[in-house]
């Protein structure tokens, strides 16, 4: 008996594969408007700072997609899963992934984003693009919108918080301020009653509860440089405030909104936040990223299967 074939469109923000692709990538983010030489240099410098011209970021996503396909097929008796990548701002774009599925004869698929928290401006946009491409091609798609409270996700993040606290030798864990962070979005999502901020706080609380920590807070990071205001407070401002007003000396950052080592983790936290912490005389540590952690892969697996069997 032949197995039922199901495609899985694994969507994420995307990143350039090499230094010479940065301008095209940045232009796509800016909706076709090329960056100024100053803007391009600023982004190029950030990539140079973390990777010296070599790009591990795309490799992280590639490995996640491979590991997810293996996890899905390992435990499946009657379904053969095939994973496809669909990126928001780089090739293969979301539309490319859907078209490839159709070309391969896939008629049934599930879409999932490598981001646990839903916003109409992020995950919602990915789903819309996939749906609009899939329908005319005859690919029936279902979508996982969020999985921010999946027990295995919370467990994986909690284990990372606990391990990081234990590695901070000579400091009692209650004396470490744990700060959960995620990518900021424009403030206008609040008027739209977007679930993104509430989902992030719910995840943070669940991780803190499981790890047994009470000394924690939430902050935003990596806001875009636009004329409209973005959600705050920003992580850099938070570090300065808790140092000045509460004399906090030890901080553990848990970038709960990111599932792999992105620029926002490797540069915004590991370089910018670390640099500020050193200047303030604070000790700053970070939890390791989920990347291909089996618990994260199983979170995705469960979420996909639940959506697939949901009428």
TrEMBL record:
Its main location: cytoplasm. This is Coproporphyrin III ferrochelatase. Its EC number is 4.99.1.9. One of its GO terms (cellular component) is cytoplasm. Fe-coproporphyrin III binds at residues 13, 30, 46-47, 126. It is an enzyme of class 4 (lyase). It comes from the Bacteria. GO terms for molecular function: ferrochelatase activity; metal ion binding. It catalyses: Fe-coproporphyrin III + 2 H(+) = coproporphyrin III + Fe(2+). It is found in: Cytoplasm. Belongs to the ferrochelatase family. Pfam families: Ferrochelatase (PF00762). Fe(2+) binds at residues 183, 264. One of its GO terms (biological process) is heme biosynthetic process. CDD domains: Ferrochelatase_C, Ferrochelatase_N. PANTHER family: FERROCHELATASE, FERROCHELATASE, MITOCHONDRIAL. Involved in coproporphyrin-dependent heme b biosynthesis. Catalyzes the insertion of ferrous iron into coproporphyrin III to form Fe-coproporphyrin III. Keywords: Cytoplasm, Heme biosynthesis, Iron, Lyase, Metal-binding, Porphyrin biosynthesis. Pathway: Porphyrin-containing compound metabolism; protoheme biosynthesis.
